[in-house]
C-alpha cells in the first residue's frame, strides 16, 4: 500500500532507526527488545525539567502486597488544589515506564500548559502480567486519588483518564470498571490513537503492514503477549480488550484522535461511533496524512501543533470548566 504522508511526517519517519524487520519495534522477544531499548537510552542525556515542576512518586499498595507507582507531576506547589489527569503511557502494553526520565519533560509540559496534576501510572506490562492487570492498576490509582485527593493537591471531582496507543486499553478498561463498580465517574476519557481490539479484523488492520512504526505484525505480537492464548478467541472480557465492550453507556465525555495510516484507525472510528450511539459525547478527530503516534515522532510539525491545540483545548475545557 502507498502511504501518502504529510511531508514533515514522512521526513521524521525516514529519520527513525529501524531494525532488520523494517520496523522500529521487534516484539518477537519482548524482554530482549526492552533490554536493547534500555541500553540505547542509557547513552542519551537526561533532559532538564522546568524548575517550576515538582515530580514525586506515589506508591499505592496492591491487595497482593506489591505496590503500584504513580508518578505525580505538579506544575508548582502542591498546596493549591488542581484538576488531575491519570495518564497511561504508550508502548503496546509491553513497553515503557512512568519512571522513564525521557518522558518527564513531555509530562511536565502538559501539566504546565493545562495547569493540572499529571499522574502517570506505572502499570504492569505484558507478558509478565496479562490483561486485565494493567486496567486493575488504573482502577486502583483512580480510586486512591479520589479518596486521598487533598493529600496530593487534587480536586477529587476533576480527575480524568487518558491513554496513548497501548495505554488506551487500560485507560478505557479502567473507565468501564469504574462504571460497573459504582465508583466516581472520571471527568473525561482521552484516547490518542488507542489500542482497543485484539481481533485485527478491520480494513486498516489489514492495510498497515509495512509502514515501520507500529504495523499489523507488531499489533498481533503485542496482543498475544497481553492475552496469551485468549487473543482472537471468544474468551476475552472487555476489561482485557475494551474494543469488545457492547455496553458503552455511562462513560464520560471522550476525546479520540485517530490517524489515516494507523493500524488502529478503523477500530478507533468504530469505537467512537458506538460511544455516540450509546449517548456518550465524543470529540472524534481523524488526522489525514498521519501515521501512528505522529505527534511523538514529529513534535515540531504543523500537524502536531494543530493536534495539540485541539487536544489541549478539550482537556482544558473538561477539567477546568
Q: How many angstroms does the end-to-end distance come to?
A: 44 Å
> What's the total number of strands?
8
Please compute the radius of gyration using only Cα atoms: 18 Å
Order of helices and strands: HHEEEHEHEHEHHEHEHH
CATH topology: Rossmann fold
The number of helices is 10
For this structure, the quaternary state is single chain
Model regions low in confidence, pLDDT < 50 over at least 5 residues: none
Cα shape: globular
Q: What spatial order of strands do you see in the largest sheet?
A: 1-2-4-3-5-6-7-8
What level of helicity do the residues show?
A: 25-40%
Characterization of this structure:
The chain is of the alpha/beta class and 321 residues long. It has helices at 7-15, 30-42, 104-114, 133-147, 168-180, 203-207, 216-227, 265-277, 294-297, 302-320; strands at residues 54-61, 67-74, 82-88, 117-121, 154-164, 189-192, 254-261, 282-291. Strand 1 (54-61) and strand 2 form a beta hairpin. Helix 4 (133-147) packs across helix 5 (168-180). The longest helix has 19 residues, at 302-320. The relative contact order is 0.15. The model has no long low-confidence stretch (mean pLDDT 97).
Amino acid at each position: 500500500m502507498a502511504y501518502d504522508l504529510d511531508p514533515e511526517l514522512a521526513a521524521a519517519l525516514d529519520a527513525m532507526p529501524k531494525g532488520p524487520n523494517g520496523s522500529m519495534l521487534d516484539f518477537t522477544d519482548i524482554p530482549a527488545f526492552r533490554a536493547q531499548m534500555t541500553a540505547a537510552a542509557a547513552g542519551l542525556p537526561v533532559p532538564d525539567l522546568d524548575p517550576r515542576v515538582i515530580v514525586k512518586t506515589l506508591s499505592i499498595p496492591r491487595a497482593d502486597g506489591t505496590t503500584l507507582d504513580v508518578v505525580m507531576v505538579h506544575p508548582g506547589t502542591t498546596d493549591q488544589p488542581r484538576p488531575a489527569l491519570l495518564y497511561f503511557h504508550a508502548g503496546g502494553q509491553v513497553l515503557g515506564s512512568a519512571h522513564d526520565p525521557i518522558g518527564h519533560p513531555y509530562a511536565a509540559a502538559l501539566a504546565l500548559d493545562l495547569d493540572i496534576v499529571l499522574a502517570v501510572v506505572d502499570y504492569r506490562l505484558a507478558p509478565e502480567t496479562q490483561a486485565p492487570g494493567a486496567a486493575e492498576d488504573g482502577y486502583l490509582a483512580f480510586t486512591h486519588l479520589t479518596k486521598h485527593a487533598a493529600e496530593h493537591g487534587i480536586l477529587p471531582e476533576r480527575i480524568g483518564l487518558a491513554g496513548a496507543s497501548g495505554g488506551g486499553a487500560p485507560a478505557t478498561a479502567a473507565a468501564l470498571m469504574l462504571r460497573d463498580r459504582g465508583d466516581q465517574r472520571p471527568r473525561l476519557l482521552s484516547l490518542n490513537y488507542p489500542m482497543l481490539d485484539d481481533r485485527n479484523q478491520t480494513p486498516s488492520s489489514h492495510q498497515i503492514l509495512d509502514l515501520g512504526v507500529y504495523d499489523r505484525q507488531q499489533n498481533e505480537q503485542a496482543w498475544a503477549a497481553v492475552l496469551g492464548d485468549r487473543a482472537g478467541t471468544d474468551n476475552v472480557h472487555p476489561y482485557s480488550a475494551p474494543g469488545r465492550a457492547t455496553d458503552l453507556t455511562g462513560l464520560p465525555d471522550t476525546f479520540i484522535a485517530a490517524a489515516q495510516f494507523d493500524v488502529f484507525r478503523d477500530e478507533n472510528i468504530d469505537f467512537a461511533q458506538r460511544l455516540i450511539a450509546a449517548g456518550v459525547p465524543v470529540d472524534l478527530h481523524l488526522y489525514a496524512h498521519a501515521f501512528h503516534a505522529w505527534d511523538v515522532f514529529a513534535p515540531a510539525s504543523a500537524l502536531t501543533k494543530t493536534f495539540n491545540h485541539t487536544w489541549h483545548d478539550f482537556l482544558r475545557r473538561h477539567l477546568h470548566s
